[in-house]
Design brief:
Number of domains: 1
Shape: globular
Number of helices: 6
Structural class: alpha/beta
CATH topology: Glutaredoxin
Radius of gyration: 14 Å
Strand order of the largest sheet: 5-4-3-8-9
CATH superfamily: Glutaredoxin
Largest sheet: 5 strands, mixed
Number of strands: 9
CATH class: Alpha Beta
Length: 154
């Protein structure tokens, strides 16, 4: 497993299939900042909470100049069912079945063959503004840190 990424470091480049086609980090950053959310598994309670929280605050995230991509090891078919169960999502779910990208970001769990819940906020230059490798969707402080990293005055 790769070491945890720290704020100020360069975000590892990636290309992944998603519910809205192939995603490349460079293409995403060309449009603005990125909130990269790793989650463990589609349709589980805590991961549903994590993904739903970004759906609920999507307008605010956009106002702060950020796009959102959520990544798990699940298949695109599973992602589509999950998004439908959540009433649709305004951002893509990317599939990382080999955990290659999760490993690059230091959040792959080789035992469960899943990614840990983790959050990375990346600026347009590819620099990590915020890194939380053990994100807890139920922790209001963890959630607030994302918006603070994106420049929201709190």
């Amino acid at each position: 497993m790769s070491p945890e990424l720290q704020t100020g470091r360069q975000a590892p480049a990636f290309t992944l299939p998603s519910t809205s086609g192939e995603l490349r980090l460079s293409d995403l950053l060309a449009k603005g900042k990125l909130l990269l959310a790793f989650y463990t598994e589609d349709a589980t309670p805590l991961c549903s909470t994590e993904v739903s929280s970004f759906k609920e605050e999507f307008a605010t995230l956009q106002e702060l100049g950020a796009q959102v991509v959520a990544i798990s090891a699940d298949t695109l078919d599973s992602h589509k069912q999950f998004a439908q169960k959540l009433g649709g999502l305004p951002f893509p779910l990317a599939s990382d079945p080999s955990l290659q990208v999760a490993s690059l970001y230091g959040v792959a769990d080789p035992v469960s063959k899943r990614a840990r819940r983790a959050i990375f906020v990346i600026d347009q230059n590819g620099t990590l503004l915020h890194a939380n490798s053990f994100y807890n969707p139920g922790n209001p402080g963890h959630y607030a840190e994302i918006f603070k990293a994106l420049g929201l005055e709190m």
